[in-house]
Design goal:
single chain; 232 residues; 8-stranded parallel β-barrel; 40% helix
Amino acid sequence: MRATLTEILAATKGSIIVSCQALPDEPMYCEEMSIMPFFANAAKQAGSKCIRTSSIRDVEAIKKITGLPVIGLVKRVVEGFDSYITPTMKEIDDLVDTDADIIALDCTMRKRGDGSTINEFISQIKKKYPDIVLMADISTAEEGINAANCGVNLVGTTLSGYTDYSPKTEGPDFELVQKLVSSLDIPVIAEGKIHTPEQAKKMLSLGAHAVVVGGAITRPLEIAQRFYNGIK
């Protein structure tokens, strides 16, 4: 069963959405059993009202164990596609079947191997699943505005710094969040390189509806590397 967008927005306003993800090449990935629900349960106990996760098995397991709404996505490299966050309709179909409450997808302007534009892809999704809630992962203000005009429900700054043409910063892209908040009538979700409570609080002060934090909470390798690099 899916939570409604209204319910999710009410629960997450001014708060933290914890991202619990582990890809097959990462230390916290276990082939036999997903351990992401344990991270998600810890996040729930800390106060999180929503979880962001990748892969069908983690969407299913986290929803079952925590009872929290989930922003679901599938990371898959597809030949000819520059994007890898929910790149094709197959991933959309799978996430719908597993009752992801919100589906996140790459809404950058990068190359799509099937020849479609992101605008056409969003239109296809909305025609097939008119009631599904979509979160656009973008890297620039222009992409966020475009996605909003295409009818997505939320815009997240997930990909800032991860496209060739977006600014490369060591920390969060505060400027992008500020631009989106002033330009859009839909919720802006701050995400990307948010490593401290102070940074999260600043994002909220700029008008972000909520803040997604992942690496600073649920990725021990990244956390450990940050400490080791910090003392060099």
